[in-house]
């Protein structure tokens, strides 16, 4: 009996021929080497996509997960990393940390196809990407390379089938509004996260929805989507505090933003919470270290990191996931930065 075979699987020589380069050059691109001209790299990556090249099949003894982040110098990222590392220790895995937009020695950014092929060549268990916008080309490249992927708090809409992990952001935003409105605040402001961030949009929507339900109207000028950034929050809050009717309470979409609001209040000679109440989001150590300690929506950041690692391993083993978007519940922590509004409005101290 003659064994039936399907179409021949494209090999590296076919990729090289299609791109018009040597097999050695094609191999450099597949393995993420930086010493390849950019136009040559693009031709090889186009050939990889056109031919559906997936690299050699092999028995893997992968023991490493790659955690990709935009920035490493935040308490948010460090809490996530702690959860990932502790879960990896439980499973006997190693964690490699790198930047999402990795660059070569000559400053050329790594393409999505090169990144996917590099991960595949290194036989990673999978990749975890923290709070970053990837785009459909990256998802497609990783799928072709058969690299399991989990995204934490994605900034963009993920492709169908991509697994993401986060918290119950909508309910978290709602809990912040409920706390402030029940204290008696009606003149509210929101330093929201980036408009392109799914989690930031959910937090803002939860906050505004509760306010509408309670007939609390928020002026459009008092809702500002900005980066999760301290300095931008200072600038926004300073402008609000210069108004003749500054807000009596502010909800910040991250701890870093809340620290910026605190700084703006200090510069304006305002006291928290006597003159203005403040609610933060994330509840990293920054929130409890602040003066005064911040009332905050607590994200279970370590648990999010842990769940992401366990899910990558689950995907690597070929086991199905229960949901492609995993949400872990937030909690609300009341500290010293919120109180009922002042009985009399703040006096305009400008000029």
TrEMBL record:
<feature type="domain" description="HTH lacI-type">
    <location>
        <begin position="10"/>
        <end position="65"/>
    </location>
</feature>
<dbReference type="Pfam" id="PF13377">
    <property type="entry name" value="Peripla_BP_3"/>
</dbReference>
<dbReference type="InterPro" id="IPR010982">
    <property type="entry name" value="Lambda_DNA-bd_dom_sf"/>
</dbReference>
<keyword id="KW-0805">Transcription regulation</keyword>
<protein>
    <submittedName>
        <fullName>LacI family DNA-binding transcriptional regulator</fullName>
    </submittedName>
</protein>
<keyword id="KW-0238">DNA-binding</keyword>
<dbReference type="GO" id="GO:0003677">
    <property type="term" value="F:DNA binding"/>
</dbReference>
<keyword id="KW-0804">Transcription</keyword>
<dbReference type="InterPro" id="IPR028082">
    <property type="entry name" value="Peripla_BP_I"/>
</dbReference>
<dbReference type="InterPro" id="IPR046335">
    <property type="entry name" value="LacI/GalR-like_sensor"/>
</dbReference>
<dbReference type="Pfam" id="PF00356">
    <property type="entry name" value="LacI"/>
</dbReference>
<dbReference type="InterPro" id="IPR000843">
    <property type="entry name" value="HTH_LacI"/>
</dbReference>
